Amino acid sequence: MQSRTFGRIGREVSEIGFGAWAIGASWGHVEADDAKAALHAALDSGMTFIDTADVYGDGRSEKLIAEVLAERGGEKPFVATKAGRRLNPHVADGYTRANLEAFIDRSRENLRTDTLDLVQLHCPPTEVYDRPEVFGALDELVAAGKLRNYGVSVETVDEALQAIEYPNVASVQIIYNIMRQKPAERFLGLAKERGVGVIARVPLASGLLTGKFKPDTRFDESDHRQFNRHGEKFDVGETFSGVPYETGLEAVEKLRPLVKGDATMAQFALRWILMNDGITVAIPGAKSASQAKANAGAADLPALDADTMREIAAIYDTDIAPHVHHRW
């Protein structure tokens, strides 16, 4: 496993991390033992970065992470969580110091730590980026010792660009994968220049880029790939990266011949993300130990050659960009 420096925070983290949404909720049921086995396998494979959120399973994801880390002992990985989505309604006026402190205190309890490594505003309303008092409140909570660093998780490139105008925003989490390439066009270079860590989420386009799905694949009713396919519950960009399901399947079939050697489609897709040095860490999810190990293996693949990168870009430009590039 290779590592990268997490922006100006300066900490070295594995370039493949563990995305802990799937072990919390919204991806079908996952038994606690399977979730913990996936986490153990990820850490055994060299992952040193875990991403979670207070709303994943209403705290279940955070608590499972704490259990696994307590079982292991020794040096802790870098654990990033998120806050804000507990608000109901989820509006900018809710992003007060009191609310943020309450959310952060709950995560500190769930994760069994006095000081959180990184707290990310969890895809807040765009209006939040025009409210410096929100970021001032986070500065105060850093000074109080409740978190070491803060960042944002965003839906759009424009939000990412707004966020990094605040000098203490240490990281941005954004959807970046073969089916969502706009961040490379306008954001990643600037983030690197400013020392901002970038976390690539939804790296496999909700599993589309595993190459395992078919037109008749059915998902559990508790899986967002079933209940949010058209944005019924939250931003549709979070589900299959906003790409229409059938369109995504057709693009995957065009990508499949580009996968070389013993690599899986998922590993190939992750390796594509790592080709951009503006990315700090990619965070695929895993619901089993075998999935976690396979994800880690992507870091060991050789670099993709120039011809392959050009072919991927052409497929994106022709098949995918018309559906997503203008929106996010």
Automatic annotation (TrEMBL):
GO MF, one annotated term: oxidoreductase activity
CDD domains in alphabetical order: AKR_AKR11C1
InterPro entries in alphabetical order: AKR, AKR2_Oxidoreductase, NAD(P)_OxRdtase_dom_sf, NADP_OxRdtase_dom
NADP-dependent oxidoreductase domain residues: 15-316
Protein name per Swiss-Prot or TrEMBL: Aldo/keto reductase
Organism of derivation: Plantimonas leprariae
